[in-house]
Amino acid sequence: MLKSPFVRLCAVPLLLGFAFPAAAQDDTMAPIAIPEQPGAIALPTGPLPDAPAKESWHSQYGSVFARNVTSATLTPFLPDPAKATGSAVIVAPGGGFRTLSMENEGWDVARALADRGVAAFVLKYRLNQTPAEMDAFAESMRQMFSGASRPDRPSPEAQIAMIAPQIADSRAAFALVRQRAGEWKIDPERIGMVGFSAGAMLTMATAVAGEDAKPAFIGNIYGPLSAMSVPEDAPPLFVALAADDPLFGAMQFDLIEDWRAAGHPVEFHLYEQGGHGFGMYQKETTSTGWFDAFVDWMAMHGLMSPAVTAGG
User: Fold this and answer.
1) Beta strand 88-92 with 266-271: parallel, antiparallel or unpaired?
2) What is the bridge-based pairing of β-strands 237-242 and 119-124?
3) Could you list the residue ranges forming a coiled coil in this record (predicted)?
4) What is the reported pLDDT for 209?
5) Which CATH class is domain 4-22+39-49+70-126+154-300?
6) pLDDT per position as a tens digit, 145-162
7) What's the CA gap between 123 and 36, in Å, rounded?
8) What is the three-state SS of the chain?
9) How far apart are CA 241 and CA 226, in angstroms?
10) Most buried of 103, 169, 210, 311 (most Cβ within 10 A)?
11) 179 to each of 36, 43, 168, 212, how far by Cα in Å?
């Protein structure tokens, strides 16, 4: 069980992590075959217990999503050695712990990081089960957003327990990257994490989860900004959110103030427009610039200059 720092962060119901773009893209869900995922490495957390529905994928918003993930994987996107910085980022897509935006908030982010010389690793973490049939799944999501099936808010302790499998997957991902840091030419002291929506919740949880995780830096992209007790060794924090985000845009920015009050570095970008789930979608809003801002922030912290790597 996690200690108290994460408890207050979980005050937002976990159902509110589902990612969707504000742009007028086709929101029709269409089943697709499970795509090839070359290089994906199975994590040792094992299959999700009591999960009869099998992993399946669908297209939506011009992108691809996974759901009913029962076994976690980590997929490396390594940079050209000629421009490798030695830094690394574990990428956690969002989707309300019911689905994963694998392309927009996973692969596309990782490719862009690798192009900048940063080793990136897309975490396909285990998910809460949803109906196997696409129509039933779509209806369950509609009901969730209409409030028809939203349960009473669980206690903070219950919410922590609800994401225990995902936290275990994240910690296993960090252990794997550190174990193979020499092979992948990564400085084990420069491994960070960036997450989107529910993935941002997971990123914040990982930052306080234990010694074996300890990201060197973290990015919270349109996740909740609820208050939390900030650990003494909290890493630098980058936050990006759109003011018109229908889920978190109207919240107070307690997380930012808590980080500042604790004396830890934090950079906060509040974009006028962008909605929720903008990720790597190219839109006519300034929120599209979050990625360049994130890389510039990494550079400001000395993470984009080549470093001596383990075994390198």
Assistant:
1) unpaired
2) unpaired
3) none
4) 77
5) alpha beta
6) 665 444 455 555 566 678
7) 15
8) CCCHHHCHHHHCCHHHHCCCCCCCCCCCCEEECCCCCCCCEECCCCCCCCCCCCCEEEEECCEEEEECCCCCEEEEECCCHHHCCCCEEEEECCCCCCEECCHHHHHHHHHHHHHCCCEEEEEECCCCCCCCCHHHHHHHHHHHHHCCCCCCCCCHHHHHHHCHHHHHHHHHHHHHHHHCCCCCCCCCCCEEEEEECHHHHHHHHHHCCCCCCCCCCEEEECCCCCCCCCCCCCCCEEEEEECCCCCCCCCCCHHHHHHHHCCCCEEEEEECCCCCCCCCCCCCCHHHHHHHHHHHHHHHCCCCCCCCCCCC
9) 13
10) 169
11) 25, 13, 16, 11
Task: Count other C-beta atoms under 10 Å from residue 121's C-beta.
Answer: 27
Q: What is the pLDDT of residues 93-135, one digit of tens each?
A: 999 999 999 999 999 999 999 999 999 999 999 999 999 999 9
At 152, list the tokens: 């009473």
Q: What is the mean pLDDT of residues 272-301?
A: 95
Place of tokens 């696409």: 134
Amino acid making up residue 219: G
